[in-house]
Structure formats: C-alpha cells, structure tokens
Amino acid sequence: MAExxxxxxxxxxxxxxxxxxxxxPCDLVTVPARQGLEAVDILxxxxxxxxxxxxxxxxxxxxxxxVPPGTAAAWDMPGSACTRTDGRxxxxxxxxxxxxxDGVTPRPADWLLPPGDTGAVTDPAMLRxxxxxxxxxxxxxxxxx
Length: 145
Hints:
28% of the residues lie in helices and 21% in strands. It is of the alpha+beta class.
C-alpha cells in the first residue's frame, strides 16, 4: 500500500534530539549538490532555525545535512541517503568525510553552513519537504530549456 505524504512526513517528525548540540550524535542526509543548495534556500526562506549545519564534499558533488539521530531508520527520500552515525565518524567541529556518488568512497568535506551559524540540526520532516520542492523546481527549470 502506498503511503501518503503526510504519513511519510509523520515518520520523520523531529525527535527530542532535534535541538541537541551539534557536538552530539546525529545522522547525515546526503543529496546531490544542486538539489541540496535549492533545499538550503527553501529552508532558509522558511525562517531560522529550520536548517542546521550543512557539509559539502571536496568536489561539491553532494551536500550533507545533519539531522537528529534515528532519522536514518525511517528515511526513504528517493535520490538521497541517510547515514546512521551514532556519533561514530562524525565529530564536530572536526570535518567528517561524505560518501561519494557511489555511496561508499569517502570524500573530504567542508562546511557550507558551519555549526554555530545555524540551528543544531535540520528537522527531517522540513528537510524532506524542502528536498521535494527542490526536485520539482529543478525538474521545471530543466524542462524549460
């Protein structure tokens, strides 16, 4: 049975950890850079603190959004991946490595939006909505060429 957008969004409701310190455990949602940049704009227009720290890989192919721990268990957004970290391999303010386009090969990262300049982590329901809007905007823009 197909799930509706509201059912899917409910599964991504923020946890108590949504306002946790970015130094604690968090999961990482990675997306193609173009879609991620659109999503950042959408989230920032929605008002602070809707977007938390965001990473970009060294080649600027992907962006990584820090989200509350446990998000990976229910993340199902096509075109993205959510990595469960439990704090392992993701220590802030140290920069982690992001998975490359193949989903495996790590790439060095840098901050697009560093911790301290943003909210603690990005709300996964808001991120899911912003990524969906971004995908539709990109599809519409590409269709106009």
